[in-house]
Amino acid sequence: MTGNNTGRKTEKSFGWKPSRPTQLPSSKRWKGLLDEIPRNGALYGGFIACVGANNVRVLDRFEKRFLAKTMTVAIEIKPKIARWINMERDFRYLRDSHGDAGARDIFEKICAQLLAAIFSSDSHPIKTFPGDEGIDILVGDFSKPIEDYQCKYFLDGIGDSQKKQIRESFKTAVDSKTYQMKKWILCVPCILTIEEFKWWSNWRSKNQEQHQITIELWDGEYLLSELKARSIYDNLFDNDIKLRLDEIYTALLEIKQRVCDEIIVFIKDPSQLGYQEAIFVKKLECAQIREIDGCKRDFFNAELSEHAILSKRNDASIRMLQNLKFKVFSLWQDAYRLEQDAADGNALLGRIYDRILDLDTTTLNIPLHEMNIFAKKGILHQWAEDCSIGWLSDYRIKLEQYLQGEVNPH
Length: 410
Hints:
Number of strands: 9
Oligomer: single chain
Radius of gyration: 36 Å
Structural class: alpha/beta
Number of helices: 13
Strand order of the largest sheet: 4-5-6-7-8
Shape: rod-shaped
Distance between the termini: 33 Å
Largest sheet: 5 strands, mixed
Order of helices and strands: EEEHHEEEHEHEHHHEHHHHHH
């Protein structure tokens, strides 16, 4: 840890230089440890001090009230979206997701799960096979009359073909020599039209009277309501959406944790940092950069974060930091090719700052809470301090001229 950097720095070749002493204010300039800054392991290492408690304060990424509101929304969004999905999806979703053949099989499995929830171990799906005696699912056993459930994936209503299938299935069941029925239930995913229901009513009435068997219709609306009432609907219909919601929810919680862990040190009076003679500051002055105080704060956070990461001596974390630094250098390199001025570097620095903000949670995101957004911007000035980047065309020559008093940027 060093104090002010007052010496001239020679040009360095491109490369990551973790051996450069971290430029944090010297202990001689800072009078005591600031109690309001939390000690987070090596994050501050017990060496952060200030000339007074009014000079430094710790900022969360967002104000606490806003953070609390944001996280409340994050926690509530999952069930709200789920409820919205529940109102929208019906059995057409099966065909859209699995095609006609797949939808028929899944519809029968859905009916089987529903009946198992209602009748427990008395419910038995029958394997589809020639000679299944007209049973898809039965309730009871063959020692006495059973309830026979027929599952027909008639999604688009009941036309002549569907009516024929209903009559044939019922006849097979009623003529069976293997079992007797007390109830025959048709399960379909559609809702009948007036004409379809008229046909059903007449057919049902006729066969109930003729065979002395109770006949019922479980249509799509009734099946959905029963599935929802028994909390089966979500898993059967929306498992893919549920998984995506879980991913979103987990990501939101990770963001919450990152925001909570992230600590940004905001220096109210950057002159206390002692960076007035630092090379990166001279480059900013030479390029007529406005708001240099903000850049000093960024540099300080970058130095602080780097010290915290390096002090832990974790190879994976150090490698992530190194890669992050190279990515930030690449952002400067790309922007420098497109936009460089001989006298004013504000546009170039602003462009790169915008890119860093845009990529903060994607390309530049690393699972190290020490590395906040200020620190990522500060990496630019670390590169500048190492004489690897600048803000003007021919920035090396311009810096030499400025340091020798040959150029007055003002």
